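User: Okay, second chain of the day. Same drill as before: sequence in, structure tokens out.
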Amino acid sequence: MAQHMKSALEVQLDVLGALMLRDMRTRFGGTMWGYGIAVGWPCAHILVITAAYVLMKRPTPIGDSIVLFAVSGLSPYIIMNYMSRKMMEGPMQNKQLIYFPQVKFFDVVISRALVEICTSSLSIIMVFFLATCFGANVIPRDTFTFCQSMILSILFAMSLGFMNVFISQMLPQWQIGVIVPTIIMYFTSGTIIVTEAMPQIIYEYVQWNPLMHIVKVCRSGFYPGYGQDSDILYVLLVSGNLALIGLLGIRFVVPRFLN
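Assistant: Same drill. Structure tokens below.
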């Protein structure tokens, strides 16, 4: 019995590994540079917006480096945006694989989530490396807090990814509709405008945005004393509830639509 269970686990891990490798190899036309482009795309996204801030000579709301301000705010958003969206696209792009008896729908979702964790991590590392190469001081003063914000970003992105998969399987138009809440979260997260500068009545509402708290945690790793009102527990509670709803939907509701 134990041997049978071990074999089943090994088969499951082999399936996940094969799906991850296939995903990496087939990105951007299946070229050998495809996965490199997948890593570089979010990185380029951050760098282009940061360059726009610099060229517009916008005043720095915090500190004296617009590059550091942009990178510290955009990093959590980019993880949330790309990871949650790519997780949703995974089952749509690999629907034919579900017809194989060894491959389950959930395997496709989890394999895409694991690939996106690797991709997001490499993208953020590349952003900070390139920013440092161009002379920007983007080394966090509190490494633990910065790493904490990145973990929170990944957890929140995964929970949104599970929800997006669940909703998009029932309502395919959600692949386009998800743009609306994503834009709302972006403009109310403090990424480009610090939330403290917003009118009090607006600030009371934007505090419901988990991404705003993650951005504050991230920036507190660079700016001592900043973001003391960030609520990590709130982010974990929202992420946990979204993940639970999404996973239950994927497990019990989505199979009815697939059949």
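The chain is about 75% helix and 0% strand.

User: Thanks, on to the next one.
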